[in-house]
Amino acid sequence: MSVTAEVTPLYKNKNYNVDDRVEDLLSRMTLEEKVLQLQNRALGGPDSFDYNFGGKSVGTIHEMNTSAYECKARIDTLNSYMRNTRLGIPVIICVEGIQGILQDSCTLFPHALAQGSTFNPDLIYRMTEACAAEAQAIGHRQVLSPVLDIARELRWGRIEETYGEDPFLISEIASAFVNGYQENGVACMPKHFVAHGSPTGGLNCASVPGGTLELHNLYLYPFRKVIEKSSPLAIMSCYSAYDGVPVTGSRYYMTDILRGELGFDGYVYSDWGSVERLNNFHHTAASNEEAARQALYAGIDLDIDDCYKSLVDQVNQGLVDVELVDEAVRRILKTKFRLGLFDNPGNSNPYDMTLIHSPQHIALAKEVADESVILLENNGILPLDLNKYKNIAVVGPNADYAVMGDYSWVQNDNNIGVTLLQALKEKGGKDVHIRYEEGCDWWSQDDSNIHKAIETARDADVIIAAVGTRSTYLARNPKHTTAGEGFDLSSLELPGQQLKLLQELKKLNKPIIVAFISGKPLALPWVKDNADAFLVQWYAGEQQGNSLADVILGNVNPSGRLNVSFPRSTGNLPCFYNYYPTDKEYAGDHGGSLENPANRYIFEKPYALWPFGSGLSYTDFEYSNEKVNVNGDMINVTLDVKNTGARDGKDVVQVYVSDPVSSILTPVKQLKGFKKVNVPAGDTVNVSIDIPVDELKMYVPDGKYKVEPGEYIIGIGSSSDQTKSFSITI
To answer: What is the pTM of this model?
Structure first.
């Protein structure tokens, strides 16, 4: 009698390389097991596991409805369940992670738009490093973030999820975001591939117009750079069509471009419903089964919904080549091996739950919020002197509401977030008297309570008015939301009666500070002309109120810079700084005004009210000794930044490039370098910024990327409209 020793399958032996392990496992799988790897399931509770999974593994799991603590218990149980399936294939546990882990009790950091306005990639790396620790503690190994869409259509509700209007800034912030997660064991999923953020009419999911040159020179740029700099393990496709072609069903976009041109080697995850929308939305497929065939052939590896359930039958009927299934399964299995899911039994997690909403993470959330606040107007009233202004009226619909934005977990923002009113009361001290009245809501035409705000402010020394938008979707009831996914605007005027509230308050002849708490820019020319100070705070997470109050009171010196331009009106759209010269400038005509109609826009100027890169400080910075040198394949910019004021402060040095003569239209200027530096009062800091010559390349009609030789203009300054020019020759 002989006993045969049990041999460990090759795919379970971590001494073999990933590709060999993937092929060994793939060879052992049935067609049904393969197709299940191309699908997602909701986590559910342990009592539903048999119903949800039937003793078999799937590709990914998502969960966003339970507390962090309940979710951890469920994930631990699920991992054990999956180890006992026939092949013991683990699952990737996914969660939203755009501003922290979307799980009840986790730290809520500022939203993406606020992350972008910090102009500080190192800070965003630290943020996602902390987020990864919270994710790992729970058991999440992949976040469905970041968003690389470009904020060029301001009517679109999802502006708050972007990093702004500039492709270079997006790529720098997003690369830091991905690296912070992935270098700490949590995969990222940049989205939405590709060109999703400029929908026709600003309507979410509408088609995006454009052509080949715009695709390559604009929309692909952030994805190309993030893939080069951070190697994300997954990419999410988009709902929309570009140039008339639904992206999720296009092999050209999802395989030839994404994998061939950009070199992406992870797996592709469909956005919710994007596969079935090939049938019921775009109508390029006559059924969900045909939609599944289109998407799989295009290069969509995992369908978040139900269309791929038909693939077993379709393969058996000869409608789908099993090699397409195998290739998609390879990519998903490879990601699981890369994450170490096969080699970690699930119970050796070094992270513990004390990391969830820890004091250190809360302090970091405050730091990100502090650096995101943008001061755009100030006649000297800020920072507020509480010895002079002891009676403060706080008004407006966002004054006592902590707006988190889409993709945060809280059911009621004020249960965790600090409001501006709360923070001002806490920080103002016992000698300061603060009175509050909302005045109007954030959305309706009801102006019946404005008179209450007027009475509240009548005896005040100063008025602080908090206006803007509210975004409450995903975790909460979206009733009356004015921004966020699926909530788009036809007009960029302040919603409801908020402008009337400001106008009536101004009649009191009191100093008025406008705090704009929003998920997108709106048209605010009245504010520019009438406010004594204007502060912008994109949704800034749970520390929103503390951060904004500290800036108002001078405890924090503002250092945020505008990452998306403010339009003068809805008709002023599109409104971004890196426009083609043909699109704004013509024969010296710069628009008119109500008092003096002129050519072009006869009643207003075609330029932004506040342009990209703008932002004031409570101190002054002076630039000197600017030098630009070309050394081989690198452009080096150096300068001295002196803080000439009495306060320590952070400045953002910005470098723009212009191509005066080129074979195709090029933007009037493009950001190609920036650096945020801390400069103590009275000190001088030397700043050096390197720009690869390769950054000057553009995609031209012959289908190639080229750096065209000739003169280029390098602009160095503190915003897109405040630069000093230098000429170089390439």
So the answer is: 0.97
